[in-house]
Amino acid sequence: MSLRERGRRRGLWLTAAGACAFGLWMTVSRTAEAAVAIVVALAMGWVATHEWTQAKRAKLIGAIVAGLIVVIAISVWRIETNPANIASGFRQQFVMSSFRIIGTHPYFGIGAGQYYRQAPLFLTAQLAWAYGSENAHNNFLQITTETGIIGFALFACWIAGGIQLAMRALARVPYDWRLLGAAAGVTAFIATCLTSHPLLVQEVSMVFFLQFGLAAALGGSSMLNQSIGTPASAAERRLPGPPALWTRLPAVVTVAGTVLLAIWPAQTVLKPYTPVHLEEVDGFYYEPETDEAGVPFWWTREYASLFVPATAKRVEIPVRAPAGTTAADPALIEVTSGGMTLTRALIGDAWRVLIVELNPPQPPLTFNRINIKSDRVSRVNGRPVGIRVGDVRIARIAYEVMAAPPGPPRQP
Fold first, then answer.
1. Considering only CA atoms, which of 412, 293, 300 is closest in space to residue 358?
2. Which pLDDT value is given to residue 214?
3. Domains of the chain, residue spans
4. Is a pLDDT exceeding 80 seen at residue 238?
5. Helix (H, G, I), strand (E, B) or coil at 298
6. What's the pLDDT at 192?
7. What is the mean pLDDT of residues 327-347?
8. pTM for the full model?
9. 137: phi > 0 → left, psi -120 to 50 → alpha, else beta; which?
10. How far apart, in whole angstroms, are the C-alpha atoms of residue 385 and residue 284?
11. Which of residues 33 and 402 earns the better pLDDT score?
């Protein structure tokens, strides 16, 4: 808009642009800054080369993209190899957790707005301990988990259709600065959805959809104006129309698809959700062992989780540190549930029972997740281990006591 306007209005738009740039800087978002750098470079290259041949433009823009990808790849590699940075590892775990959810309801998802509620059943043990419950940290995966592969395909077609209108118009009118800016902003925003979920923030999503609609409308109006200015030839006017059957086909597909999308997802969402038992989710080594007294136990990793029914009111967890842990240097473990710390304990090389009082989980969850973190990791038989956990005892709301060990083979 600053390039499009003149005089005092240009000054006002420059002020607004400066405010936006300052806000972007304040976010300290490397993803947003990288998206802006890539899109602005491509937009300027698009305008500067509009008189070039298509092959020459493709080579230049390809070189710009390749150079930016190399710079970003080096930056990502430096971040990933930095041992002090744990955020990148968390993002990888969020991606795999989202794939686990998609695997349970692949076509229509688990229902809009259900990711945060159902996440405790699918997160890794480390994520569950750190967050309790969280969203996907990737808006595309968030949409896919909640609306399924079909829902994401519809969303992608809708977004791609709007951007295509803008790009087709810009191919004919490259100096439409207003359309170029709106389309570049939409593209940069979509790029940030790979590492965050901005569309879950209502104030942000409203602004995005306003600008997305503006870019699509500007592109569509530009294409309409050009079609009006270029009347169809006599041969085109004489072309026969489609058969009557084909004219009704879109309406038939729309009705059938609406009925299908209204009934099938509802049946899918009503299915009960149960934990996904994998070693990276539970954090336990599944092979049970026995100590010198014949007491069965399971080794945890640094992070581990127990899933108990929502009716469980109190849980008794027998724990023991690895052999050789002395009373002078005990292991510290922390126990959390629902993002809240329930207890901390120092344990040595002797069995100790931790008593954990639980609150019912938020509906529709039918399981409570108890997370355990050990402050140290030892190596036993070549495996990194945290502590030993024995048979767990659960007192339900009706105070019925039952015995059950922590691992999935005999999950309570």
1. 412
2. 94
3. 7-85+138-227, 279-410
4. no
5. strand
6. 87
7. 87
8. 0.74
9. left
10. 9
11. 33
pLDDT-based confidence at residue 145 (cuts at 50, 70, 90): very high
As a whole number of angstroms, the distance between CA 271 and CA 309 comes to 17
Q: Which CATH superfamily is domain 279-410 in?
A: Galactose-binding domain-like (2.60.120.260)
Tokens linked to 279: 């070693």
Exposed / middle / buried, residue 273 (Cβ in 10 Å: 0-12, 13-18, 19+)? buried
Please tell me whether residue 341 adopts helix, strand or coil conformation: strand
Q: What is the mean pLDDT of the segment spanning 321-342?
A: 86
Pull the structure tokens for residue 294. 């014949």
Q: Which of 76-80, 169-173, 405-409 has the lowest mean pLDDT?
A: 405-409
Instruction: Please state, as a whole number, how many other Cβ atoms lie within 10 Å of the Cβ of residue 167.
Output: 16
Distances (CA, A) of 115 to 119, 182, 331, 403: 6, 31, 34, 32
Long-range pairs for 97-104 at CB < 8 Å and ≥24 separation? Answer: 97/122, 97/123, 97/124, 97/127, 97/136, 98/136, 98/138, 98/141, 98/142, 98/144, 98/145, 99/141, 100/276, 100/278, 100/281, 101/145, 102/141, 102/144, 102/145, 102/148, 102/149, 104/273, 104/276
Q: How many CA atoms lie within 13 A of 263 on its CB side?
A: 6
Helix (H) or strand (E) holding 272: none
Region for residue 339 given its phi and psi (left: phi exceeds 0; alpha: psi -120 to 50; beta: otherwise): left
pLDDT band at 55 (very low <50, low <70, confident <90, very high): confident
The DSSP symbol for 201 reads S
Q: How confident is the model at residue 234 (pLDDT cuts 50, 70, 90)?
A: low
Question: 337-348 burial, b if ≥16 CB within 10 A, otherwise e?
Answer: bbeeebeeeebb
Instruction: Give, in order, the Cα–Cα distances in Å from 209 to each of 204, 268, 271.
Output: 9, 29, 32
End-to-end CA distance of the chain: 62
Write b or e for each residue in 126-160: b if 16 or more Cβ atoms lie within 10 A of its Cβ, otherwise e: bbbbbbbbbbbbbbbbbbbbbbbebbbeebeeeee
How many other C-beta atoms can be found within 10 angstroms of the C-beta atom of residue 69? 11
List, for residues 165-205, the tens digit of each pLDDT value.
998 888 888 788 889 999 999 988 998 888 888 999 999 99
**Residue the block writes with tokens 């086909």:** 249
Token digits for 412?
């309570």
